[in-house]
Design goal:
Blueprint (H helix, E strand, L loop, with lengths): L7 E4 L5 E4 L2 E2 L5 H13 L3 E2 H8 L5 H21 L6 E3 L3 E4 L7 H11 L2 H14 L2 H17 L3 H17 L3 H17 L3 H17 L3 H18 L2 H18 L2 H17 L3 H15 L5 H17 L3 H18 L2 H17 L3 H17 L3 H18 L5 H15 L3 H10 L3
Antiparallel strand pairs: 1-2, 2-3, 4-6, 5-6
Helix pairs in contact: 1-3, 2-3, 4-6, 5-6, 6-7, 6-8, 7-8, 8-9, 8-10, 9-10, 10-11, 10-12, 11-12, 12-13, 12-14, 13-14, 14-15, 14-16, 15-16, 16-17, 16-18, 17-18, 18-19, 19-20
């Protein structure tokens, strides 16, 4: 960080505050504070019309623009008093803050997410514990959980999220506490721990609503939708994803818009509206194509490929499967890789290349077993069994695989997958 005696720093992970040279920035107008924090949180320029509509939606256009000018004046005056007026910049159309990512804790957190270097993160945890830098400690523990999850080590990920939550709770860092509860919920669901997922999600929702943290509600609504999908409650899933989509559009968050549209596609697929599901997934993919959201892009590609295979659009599914596999392999994403390899095995089976398909299914079972992921084992057994029954009906091994998967889905109350499996057993 540059040695600037009038450095503006903004803390958003917890109770929001702005400081200059360590002293609180005095800004009495609450809309001006909200505007300052929003510019810091988004980290990018916004048009004046957009900001006026966002913060003064209840006012006519002319009045909203006047209110925006007034709030910008309050911010400039407060910054000018402290000698940091250059931090607020813009022109006749755009407004933004000149902040380095070191100047805002949320920006620093995003940098950690982008880097994802585990050894550096472990070193950072030790350093933050020694210095008492609790905000950055929360961010680093959170990202360590994400790194473990990407390797398929879900139990270790949960431990990191729990420690991040305990740290955030001690320091009343409400934003990180809500995010830690959300990620704990989502990855608990991947392990089939439904009750734990529901409890953690409820805690996250309570925090987001109590402290009016709209940005935290975005991932929470997505996880709520995922839980409803897991239970086969399609209408409730659609409602959750639609709520999140509306909020993402209001906040201008393109990544979350794509994620929630994809969720709506999965809910449509669960109701056997495969054409609608395909359209929603294609739109979601188009929204983020070429924008760097490669993890979400890969997930949507796999969901789209899976939907196309259900429609027996084999040729259309293949390029999505191959592209997703390439990305998952390049970035070491084991769960995405397993999902992609399962679909690749199905693709091989449609071409009657059973030696390669069976070998790939066997490899996926071994990988899931090595990671101790019972649901991934069952999902591999289910899709292998269904593929055998569909494309090689004389092979009795298909029913045996489905029966093994049925036990696991029943044990973990995975109702949607259990219902789909029962349909598959009738093939």
């Amino acid at each position: 960080m540059a040695n600037n005696p009038t450095q503006l720093t903004i803390r958003l992970l917890g109770a929001p505050e702005a400081r200059i040279s360590g002293a609180p920035l005095v800004l009495h107008d609450h809309k001006a504070r909200a505007l300052l924090y929003y510019l810091a949180a988004t980290g990018r320029p916004h048009t004046r019309d957009y900001l006026a509509t966002l913060l003064w939606s209840e006012s006519p256009g002319g009045n909203a623009r006047h209110s925006l000018r007034s709030s910008l004046y309050h911010i400039r005056q407060a910054l000018h008093v402290e000698g940091s007026e250059g931090a607020l910049a813009g022109d006749d159309d755009l407004v933004y803050l000149k902040l380095d990512h070191y100047d805002c804790d949320l920006a620093r957190f995003r940098q950690l997410l982008k880097a994802g270097n585990e050894s550096a993160l472990v070193e950072a945890v030790s350093a933050h514990r020694l210095t008492g830098n609790i905000s950055d400690l929360c961010a680093t523990l959170f990202e360590l959980g994400n790194v473990a999850a990407q390797r398929g080590e879900l139990r270790q990920a949960l431990e990191h999220y729990q420690e991040a939550a305990r740290t955030a709770e001690r320091t009343h860092t409400h934003y990180f506490l809500a995010l830690a509860h959300n990620n704990f919920a989502y990855h608990s669901l991947l392990l089939g721990r439904l009750a734990a997922a529901q409890q953690a999600l409820a805690k996250g929702n309570t925090l987001a609503e109590t402290y009016e943290m709209s940005s935290a509600l975005l991932p929470l609504t997505s996880t709520q939708g995922e839980i409803q999908l897991y239970l086969g409650e399609w209408a409730a899933a659609s409602a959750a994803f639609q709520q999140g989509l509306t909020l993402a559009e209001e906040l201008g968050n393109l990544e979350r818009q794509a994620g929630h549209r994809a969720g709506l596609g999965l809910a449509a697929r669960g109701q056997h509206n495969l054409e609608v599901a395909t359209t929603l997934l294609e739109v979601a993919l188009t929204l983020i194509r070429g924008r760097g959201y490669w993890h979400l892009h890969t997930r949507i590609q796999l969901w789209l490929a899976e939907t196309l295979l259900l429609r027996e659009h084999i040729t259309e599914a293949e390029p999505h499967i191959l592209a997703a596999l390439q990305t998952a392999q390049a970035h070491g994403r084991r769960l995405l890789l397993m999902q992609g390899e399962r679909l690749h095995a199905c693709l091989l089976a449609t071409r009657n290349n059973w030696p390669a398909a069976n070998a790939l299914f066997t490899t996926m079972l071994e990988r899931a077993s090595n990671l101790g992921l019972s649901l991934e084992i069952a999902r591999t057994q289910a899709i292998w069994g269904e593929t055998l029954l569909r494309y090689s009906p004389g092979d009795n091994h298909g029913h045996a695989l489905l029966m093994e998967a049925r036990k696991v889905f029943t044990e973990h109350d995975a109702r949607a997958e259990l219902n789909a499996l029962m349909v598959g057993m009738k093939l």
